[in-house]
Design a protein that fits this description.
Elements: E1 2-9, E2 12-19, E3 29-31, H1 33-48, E4 53-57, E5 61-64, H2 66-81, E6 85-89, H3 93-101, E7 109-111, H4 114-119
Parallel strand pairs: 2-4, 3-5, 4-6, 6-7
Antiparallel strand pairs: 1-2
Amino acid sequence: MINIKNTCNNNINTISFESIDEPDFGDSFPLEIPVMTDVDNMLTEGLTAGHYNFIIDLNNISYMCSFGLSVFFNSHRKFSNNEGKIVFLSPNPTIIKLFSTLKVINVFEIYQDEIIAIQSFSNKKNT
């Protein structure tokens, strides 16, 4: 089972993931359809509540299904329309390769450092 955490600090929400009760996953695990459905709901609720800035912490993620990418791509568009954005934190090389292969690497902002990811929002309107 994967626990999805959504924390908010200074008008920036951070979604992160942790494995619970799944020792087979080790330190990393995939984002598959059931988890991404929950993430999609979180992002939609955030948009409805007026939260337009999200960091998606992919530190523990080994793989992302194509549905996951579509969730992030569609949410990115919706948040951008509200002067917000989604940025990714610490994706592994497999996920970066997926973004590159699907030609969305330039659509998303990707950071390896959380402080720099947070600072990236200073150029955007925070609501």
